[in-house]
Amino acid sequence: MNEVVSVRNVTKHFQQKTAVKNIHFSIGKGEIVAILGPNGAGKTTAISMMLGLLKPSEGEIKLFNRQPDEKQVREKIGTMLQEVSVMPGLKVCETLELIRSYYPHPLSMKELVSLTALTKEDLKTPAEKLSGGQKRRLSFALALAGNPELLVFDEPTVGMDTTSRHQFWKTVNSLADQGKTIIFSTHYLQEADDAAQRILFFAEGRLAADETPKQIRARIQKQSVSFKVSSDESLEKLYRHPEVERVTQKHQRISIQTSNTDKVLALIFQENINARDIRIEQGTLDEAFRQLADGNREAM
User: Does 3.10.350 match the CATH number of domain 221-281?
Assistant: First the structure.
């Protein structure tokens, strides 16, 4: 693997608190990696150390086999943070031209407009007068302006509508196909499931999982059996069985959470439930993350 990011046995202390505890991973060229975890899990600290904004208390971080705060490294990184800082008095096109001038091989304005869906009207607008969604597009364009090899996004689609979000991830996949490395954090678990090739899941400052979304979902002990019923079907007889852990209903589809799908399927027929369109469904990423976080606390 052509390593872009190398994190080796890194720990970060803040006075009496340890924010990150002995994390170890690497990220290769062209990978799309999501960093996820509950608040206070160490995600922001890990990202800040990778960007050279914080130094590890122990261990080593290298980007492109160099220290993160070196000028040659900074020129290869583009970042998109939650808060968009703009320079008052500058139009969007002027802001982009200014940022482009800082880099040796920037993308052209035409390329930036094409990649980020900024409109001609957007370019003429003073940056401070942009709407929330327009500011996110500007932030994306600023991250791409220097033609970086590594892109780091913090909650990139917050404030975007569905269409803009879809276009954003389509562009991100295109950038990865060109060999650019993408690291992002998000609270939209479906985005991580759809976009990420790998997920780094943090819990209590530790790296609790480094796997594909499919591998993480496979950790889930509980699955569900779902089926459709007629509106007058009574399900009371299912509740008395210990294999049925939880029953939820949305419209006419029933979902039963269980650790033993075979027994639940047998019960449906045993109790003469008039079920149709029966499905066995793997748990969600959200459930997997809850189990990972709980397991990490128990191991401490």
Answer: no
Long-range contacts formed by 111-115: CB under 8 A, 24+ apart:
112/141, 112/144, 112/145, 113/141, 115/140, 115/141, 115/144, 115/171, 115/175
Are 68 and 7 in contact, with CB atoms under 8 Å apart? Answer: no
- CA–CA distance, 298 with 47 (Å, rounded to integer): 26
Domain ranges of the chain: 3-217, 221-281
pTM score of the predicted model:
0.78
One pLDDT digit (tens) per residue for the chain, 300 residues: 689 999 999 999 999 899 999 999 999 999 999 999 888 899 999 999 999 999 999 999 999 999 999 999 999 999 998 877 888 899 999 999 999 999 999 999 999 999 998 999 999 999 999 988 888 999 999 999 999 999 999 999 988 888 888 999 999 999 999 999 999 998 888 889 899 999 999 999 999 999 998 888 776 656 788 888 876 667 788 888 888 888 887 777 888 888 788 888 998 888 888 888 998 876 666 776 776 766 655 444
- Tell me if the domain spanning 3-217 has CATH number 3.40.50.2000: no
